Amino acid sequence: MRRLSVIFLALFLGAVTWAYDLPDLGDSSAAVFSSQDEKALGREIMYDIRSDSSYFDDPESVDFLNSVGNHLLAVSDDAVGMRFEFFLLQDPTLNAFAMPGGYVGVHTGLMLAAENESELASVLAHEISHITQHHIARMIEAQSKNTPLSIATMAAAILAARSNPSASMGAIVGAQAGMIQSQLDFTRENEREADRLGIQRLLKSGYDPRAMASFFGKLQRYGRFYEGTSPAYLKTHPLTTERLAEIQDRLQNVPYRQVQDGPDFQLIRARIAALVGTPRDALHYFEGRPLDPRRPEERPMIYGKAVALWRSGRLEEAQRTLQTVRAVSPANPLFDSLAAAIVRDQGDYAQALTLYRSALRHYPDQRALNYGYISTLLDAHQDQDALETINNRLLLTRSDYHLYDFQARAYAHLNKQMQSHEALAQSYLLQDNLTAALDQLQIAQRSGDGDFYENSTVEARIKDIKKQLTQAKKKGGGDTQFSDRFHAL
């Protein structure tokens, strides 16, 4: 049972305030909560997040978010040797959060609220700073004495959420009240540190550092105007008048320069708007707007409308709408991917494969194009070609569990059951689900279509996973071995 990771997810999403804002404890936090512990806990939480329906696994959107985050990391001396992953949750609230192990989550609502790429970058720069400065480890060090009792209370509240979400939220708030009160003196210091380092990242990376002040100020005004509906980001990152004034003061001597958005920012915002909520609501969002492809600022919305039409199954309309924006816009893999997906969904696999191959010649590493191409090969029962493409991609990255899902499907088509279940097992391992991986390997072992070498390999992997699960069980944890180390703090 992954109760610990669920509890921590609630802690970070619902009470990031006290989680982030603790005094500078120097290196002492590492003695209690090491970088290995941070990574283990982060992976534990991410297992639950990836299993949740709100996990927004759109490759185009996720890759764009990671490109912005990686651009900031490239100039961050304090992030050298650290691994980061930026991900999206489908949620209309304006929020973002950092978690142990280098994971940064962003709500789709915040993506849509950011008016330019620098505003999005300012939020990511702030969250990166919480991780590089080990604010989470410092929180755990400071809370090590009363954490077991707090977690017990939190566990009861979260388990109650399954039957009565409103009541459980009250219990969670009550459980946190004492901890939050005891940490208020430290809140401002860590937020200021994240602001200061975030501004430095924006300056070094070429983004507009004033975007941090403009975005935070926008959120603050929103909260004042809509009483009782303050943006979630301000609840987890309290923004005082003094803190905003300090951000503005830091920017006083920064020379002004205009920063242009990259070519994909507005396109991705429109894409997200087309993919969240119901297909009908998404389409209504675009259909109520006058869109003229001659106006460059309206072209992203036309692309978004094409995505919404495609999602609604109105494929011919989607094709025509996409063509109007492609005719007046520079080449872009987002257009190529959508064009090929529309043709694929029309059932013309041959033409879709032609479009994918053409696009991949220009953008060989674009994930959405590769996924679409592999999926279409499998739909067309060109399974050997699909396997060749998958294996070539795996030579470049062994950590993409989606590729193993495709591989499992290809092997299943070829009636290679052992290899199919082995591939699924590898996918689950990459998602930190040892139990599901073990199940797949045991099914592979019973398939009866492997040779001596393959059977021996599967048997060895089964023994290894069983050993890991036994060790975790002895320590009182779930699939990973983090739980007991935390309870021992």
Overall morphology: globular
Order of strands in the sheet with the most strands?
Answer: 1-3-2
Helix content: 55-70%
Query: What is the averaged pLDDT score?
Result: 82
Global structural class: mainly alpha
Gap between N and C termini: 20 Å
Q: What is the β-strand count?
A: 3
| Tally of distinct domains | 3
Number of helices: 26
| Spans of at least 5 consecutive residues with low confidence | 1-28, 148-186, 480-489
Question: C-alpha Rg, in Å?
Answer: 24 Å
How would a crystallographer describe the biggest sheet? 3 strands, mixed
Strand residue percentage: under 5%
Sequence-ordered SSE layout with sheet pairings:
Layout: H1 3-14, H2 16-20, H3 28-32, H4 35-51, H5 59-73, E1 85-89, E2 96-99, E3 103-107, H6 108-113, H7 117-132, H8 135-142, H9 147-160, H10 165-205, H11 210-225, H12 232-236, H13 241-250, H14 265-275, H15 279-287, H16 299-311, H17 315-326, H18 333-345, H19 349-362, H20 367-379, H21 383-396, H22 401-413, H23 417-430, H24 434-446, H25 452-474, H26 482-487
Parallel strand pairs: 1-3
Antiparallel strand pairs: 2-3
Helix pairs in contact: 1-4, 1-9, 5-7, 7-10, 7-11, 9-10, 10-13, 14-16, 15-16, 16-17, 17-18, 18-19, 18-20, 19-20, 20-21, 20-22, 21-22, 22-23, 23-24, 24-25
